[in-house]
Amino acid sequence: MNAVTCGPEWGDRRSSDAVGISSPWAAFHFLARIDRSRLTHSAAFRRLQGKTQVVGVGENEFFRTRLTHSLEVAQIGATLADRLLWFSGRAEWSHWVPWLPPEHLIETACLAHDIGHPAFGHNGEKILNYFMLDHGGFEGNGQTLRLLTKLGEYSDGYGYDLTRRSLLAVVKYPVLFAEVAPDYPSRPERVPRNLTAWHPPKCLLDDEAAVRDWLVAPFSEADRRRFITPQEVEKVEAGIPIKGLRARYKSLDCSIMELADDIAYGVHDLEDALAVGLLSPQQVVADLDELLRRVPALEQGRKRREADYYVSRIASGEPRLLKQAITNLVHFLVTQTVPVELGLFDHPLLDYQMQLKPEGAEILRQLKGYVFDQVIAQPRIRTLEYKGQQIIAELFEAFRDNPKDLLPRSLSARIEPGCGHSLHRTVCDYIASMSDGEATAIYQRLFLPGNGSIFEPW
């Protein structure tokens, strides 16, 4: 494996194969900064401030939106990249040095990881997948790659035109919809009120097959085959039973991004729920007492805290003490990460992974499960997601049936005459780009009494 050199192909963009920089390491740093700047100045990134993370936008100014969540994921991801650099200074890991991801590259992946997710959380995903079953499917992570490589505003036809390595860092599930879609039930004439049966698989969209081929082109044939071949799984993830074919592998850079995302989800969403009263400190301490007392026992060296450190601070109900507990819990989970060599791939970018130690992984698993059960699955949260599902359903049918009259002309011009696939994908792209507020405003203009105004955004 060590014979595989860090070549310039990882700095390639789809619009050009030449990066113009002789040193691959210099190229990664220089181009990763450009990639990050494109993300932070993009319209899709700004729209994340209007997309739901857990609680609907506008419910409470304290709650994280997908924008603030992404910023925090980027900070945690950069810290994990620094931790990997620390490991590379040890003799047994010195061979990692040519493949260390620049901090800018990890930040790019973290900032980008949610930009394809539609309004109204996972219910937005489900309803769009329902309409797109015969047209390549829909899934938020898959839409992220589509936005980055086709729809973004920084190029003609190549989207944000990020480097190959930046894009590979975003791809959590390198399998296509057609390769992993379950046997969905027949769709009724009217949109059903419960869309659980049409939950999207974790995948890329079928329209992105050529992009996937380009991304994995530098790998050996054996690596490509193993990397993109789905495998049978059966587990529960975020409260949802997962059974069927699923992607199993991701790149080194993506493993860092996903860890950062999981840590932010499991800890910061718990902080939100405590801070605004969705959960009481007494309830959380009673439910998580054993887990919270386990953390100090696993902390190392001078950073080890007293056994009741997390319990007492969360139980206090004092915002300052809660923030201390949350900050140090994030730090603990970061220090639980280690590099791992899988021994399955020829290429280092696939064979090296960043993972949590078993104890840390179990603590994070329980935190994420608790947040899902006690916060995300609460009926008062679900009712808002359900309303969003109905808004998207009616918007989709209206735009699909009246594209020339209702879609912006710049979008209706993209529809190939007589092509149902082109029509559906164009409508889906348009709705997926909307923030919660944009989707609600357009719905009100189309379906609720009132004249509206020709000067309203469209």
TrEMBL record:
Signal sequence interval, chain numbering: none
SUPFAM superfamilies found in the cross-reference section: HD-domain/PDEase-like (SSF109604)
Domain HD: 66-266
Xref: InterPro entries: dGTPase (IPR006261), dGTPase-like (IPR050135), dNTPase_2 (IPR023023), HD/PDEase_dom (IPR003607), HD_domain (IPR006674), PHydrolase_assoc_dom (IPR026875)
Alphabetized UniProt keyword annotations: Hydrolase
UniProt similarity note: Belongs to the dGTPase family. Type 2 subfamily.
Protein known as: Deoxyguanosinetriphosphate triphosphohydrolase-like protein
Origin species: Pseudaeromonas paramecii
